[in-house]
Design brief:
Layout: H1 3-16, H2 19-26, H3 30-44, E1 49-51, E2 56-58, H4 60-85, E3 92-98, H5 100-117, E4 121-127, H6 134-137, E5 141-145, E6 153-167, H7 169-174, E7 189-192, E8 200-205, E9 208-213, E10 219-220, H8 223-231, E11 236-240, H9 241-250, E12 254-256, E13 264-272, H10 279-291
Parallel strand pairs: 3-4, 3-5, 7-10, 7-11
Antiparallel strand pairs: 1-2, 5-13, 6-11, 6-12, 6-13, 8-9
Helix pairs in contact: 1-2, 1-3, 1-4, 2-3
Length: about 300
């Protein structure tokens, strides 16, 4: 006797309040529906329904069992659909979110290529620097850079990005020497508040990570904002490499203390733990992991 059939029968009887109505919807006889419920109650060792001649009502135990049973059946049906999709092209709607800067530089282009490879997947991408509650907003997957704190989510690291210290030539022309992290106390430091550490910057000194507290008049919750302030000669910025690499190559910014730079931040694909990954989400995570292999 298939346990999933027992669970489906329980749900239909609970929803309809009738063995007859449940049997009609499940294309079985009322006698078989009743047999399934008795078998389930016997296996659980608990009564799930109060029976009467007019209606069937759930017991307190049945009501407590209902929600978890419904989730189990839903997960099983979704799993079956995904297994079928593994043997054909994935399809369906994919909802994504990512920070503005990372998304604009990498994710939009990657999504275009992913869409060309999987034409039966529709995607909605929300680029935002605010924290998105994936469960509340119905988002399948978030790309997040840096440390993760939400224990209700699962994550797969898909890449690493170096952090660099930089400033404009104009700023450095009139600034004190900057030969070691200790010299930062004499400099104006631009604070990107998107970094969890904010004004606590870590460097590698004699092979060991050492954290320095820096000060600065200007703070901004945007990686591009910190970049622009650095370009305008407003101080020294700790930035993600991909944000400033073009400026460094062009000479608009100068990379500093390169022998002391050891910090790298993880790029994570984050998703809710309440359900297994659909085929389309798995494919996109694998796709992005391949894209991020050589990210600098």
């Amino acid at each position: 006797m298939d346990r999933i059939d027992l669970l489906k029968t329980f749900l239909k009887v609970a929803d309809t309040g009738s063995f007859t109505a449940a049997a009609e919807r499940l294309d079985m006889t009322p006698q078989l529906a009743s047999k399934y419920i008795r078998a389930l109650e016997s296996e659980l060792g608990a009564q799930l329904f109060h029976r009467s001649t007019r209606r069937v009502n759930m017991t307190e135990t049945g009501a407590a069992f209902y929600d978890r049973c419904a989730r189990l059946v839903d997960d099983f049906e979704e799993l079956k659909a995904d297994v079928r999709q593994d043997h054909c092209a994935p399809r369906g709607q994919l909802r994504l979110t990512a920070p503005h800067c990372f998304g604009g530089k990498y994710l939009v282009s990657a999504l275009a290529d992913f869409s060309a490879e999987y034409p039966e997947i529709s995607a909605t991408l929300d680029l935002t620097d605010r924290y998105v509650n994936l469960l509340d907003e119905g988002v399948d997957l978030a790309i997040r850079v840096g440390s993760l704190e939400d224990s209700t989510l699962l994550a797969r690291q898909i890449g690493m990005v170096p952090v660099v210290l930089c400033a404009s030539p104009d700023y450095l022309e009139n600034a004190p020497d900057l030969n070691s992290p200790c010299d930062l106390e004499h400099h104006a430091c631009i604070i990107d508040t998107n970094f969890k550490s904010q004004n606590k910057w870590t460097f590698l000194v004699d092979g060991q990570p050492v954290t320095y507290q820096v000060e600065g008049r200007l703070k901004v919750n945007s990686a591009n904002g910190a970049r622009i302030l650095a370009l305008k000669g407003q101080g020294v910025s700790l930035s993600l490499h991909y944000m400033v690499e073009d400026d460094i190559k062009a000479g608009r910014l100068v990379s500093l203390l390169t022998d002391y730079m050891a910090t790298k931040l993880a790029i994570n694909a984050v998703y809710p733990h309440t359900r297994h990954l659909t085929a389309r989400v798995r494919r996109f995570i694998d796709f992005m992991a391949d894209r991020c292999k050589h990210l600098k």
